[in-house]
Amino acid sequence: MEDPTAASEFRPRPPLPPPVPPSDSTTATQQRTIAFRHPGYPDFGPNLLSLIAVDGEQGMGDGIDYDTALVACGIVACNNWSQSWFGIKDRSGGATTFRAVSRPEDGVLRESTYYFFINQNQDEQYPVFPSFDHWRFPHRNLPNLWQALDIPPFVPSSQNLNRDGALAAALRDQSCRLTAWTNATEASHLIPFASSTWFIVNSMSQYCRLPMRRDPVDDDRNLILLRRDLHLLFDQRHFTILPKRTSPDPLSKPSLVFHTWQPRGDRELHHLFHNRTLQQPTTGLSVEFLLARFAWSIFREQTYPFLTGTFEYTVQLFSPATRGVRTEIRNSLGLFSLLRVLPLRTFNHPVSAGEPKVALVDADSESEEEDDFDSDEEEEDEPPRGRSRERKPMCMGNPSMTGF
Questions:
Q1: Is 277 buried (19+), middle (13-18) or exposed (0-12) by CB count in 10 A?
Q2: Interval 345-366 mean pLDDT
């Protein structure tokens, strides 16, 4: 006779469902790209920007957020957004003219092609920045939507946190700001650690909580806690963090959300996280560092194919020697060797906050550094291959909280 006190039969839990429902698995073939063109160049050339349709209600998106596209175009067009506008061609009167496109009621652009103008001059061959190294941060000239962000400051309770920005960020956030996971989290840089020289030459330490920190790029206002796998995707430019309007009222406060870039290969990431607000409370992040991260995520060939054409382009180039910007006309071959003008930083090669060593990269040198149009297979916050990398704990008491 069976013992009634014996343990009941073990019944395993069923496997977790896939991140993307099977009904959505075919939407990858329906994705399309919204083209944003420079009106000063022929239509047979490459787009100024190519943004995958990730916003809207159809499948995984049928358009792109108006404000996101406007600021993205403005960034590459030398930070022009105060008078900028989108236009579409109007051939109804015989001659080709451009009709201005106002922000749609739901905020989503759905036409296949738009032209980006920085003022009322419709034929201007306005200059562009060729890469993130050349992009100058727009101090005191942030886009209106970014100025409207209201992120409360973070004041640590212990003075010991003033010595370790990563520890301060970990204790501030407590969990991954995207998933609320507490395991396997890392303090992730907004402006990448590898771009420390860019951080210094653009005087970004003024936005730090502790601007006199020995290594200001490690300030907690430039750090956000993410789950380790999401940190990897963040540094491969699969998603970024930006403000979006939640109401057609232009005076309403925007929400800070995660925005995915590549749903063709990121169905899971897009389905789970696109347009998700950050875990609450959101405190202590710098709006300026978030804008710089947004810009950094744009300067890659998949999004910014413009300079791959055969034209001569009007560009603004940053000179490390003079710390100034000059406007030149260059073809794509002449620009290729100038995309990287600031050295990537490794974890065992510090940069002095006083006089960072910067130099033009010799096109003929056998450099391990890659240009700003890196493959998505590379982790952008990593040092170049072949060099050792030292990790340090991000949060005492949680050994899983390690990272950049």
A1: middle
A2: 44
